[in-house]
Amino acid sequence: MKHRTIAAALTAAAALTALTACSSSDSSDDKPAAKAPAYEITHQDDSGNQRRVTVEVTSNKDLRAVFDDVAGKLTDDAGWFVEINCKTGGTAKVDNRLANGRKAVGSIGAATTGLAEGKSDFQVNEGRTCPK
Questions:
Q1: What is the distance of C-alpha 11 from the center of its chain?
Q2: What is the gyration radius of the CA atoms in the chain, in angstroms?
Q3: Sign of CA dihedral 29, 101, 71, 111
Q4: Nearest-angstrom CA–CA distance, 124 and 132
Q5: Cβ–Cβ contacts within 10 Å for residue 72, how many?
Q6: How far is CA 91 from CA 64, 77, 83, in A?
Q7: pLDDT tens across 1-56, in order?
Q8: CA 24, chain centre distance (Å)
Q9: CB-based contacts of 66: which residues, under 8 Å, 6+ apart?
Q10: What's the CA angle centered on 36, arms 105 and 41, to 5 degrees?
Q11: Per-residue DSSP letters for the chain?
């Protein structure tokens, strides 16, 4: 009985130490997220394992912040594909794609996107701008 009590106490102490170690943070790494410029979601799938979100913006400024804002609101288990287009400069058949991103929500999202669960990636199409 004495050995069980000691083992339980050591286990509890180790768990508390692990929780305390995980909760510490270095304030130098804490940066406020960039505020997203105005954007409009023009399409968003609401079913399926692979879903598309189309976003329109008026400039190519802070596209990462736009993606982060949109991706932060995607919570359904799915593989999300985010297209960021310029509101102007495209045609009926060809949009003016400024950037693309993916987000994996849950195991279905991971399988669909090829990313780890909860991860995302983002890529700007260099050299693209919105006409003035």
A1: 36
A2: 22
A3: negative
A4: 19
A5: 12
A6: 24, 32, 16
A7: 554 444 444 444 444 333 333 333 333 344 556 788 999 999 999 999 999 999 99
A8: 24
A9: 36, 37, 39, 55, 57, 84, 99
A10: 60
A11: -HHHHHHHHHHHHHHHHHHHHHH---GGG--PPPPPPP-EEEEE--SSSEEEEEEEESSSTTHHHHHHHHHHT--SSEEEEEEEEESSS--SSS--EEEEEEEEEHHHHHHHHSSPTT-EEEEE-TT-----
Structure tokens at 54: 């189309």
pTM of the model: 0.72
Residue 101 amino acid letter: G
Q: What is the number of alpha carbons within 13 Å of residue 103 lying toward its C-beta?
A: 19
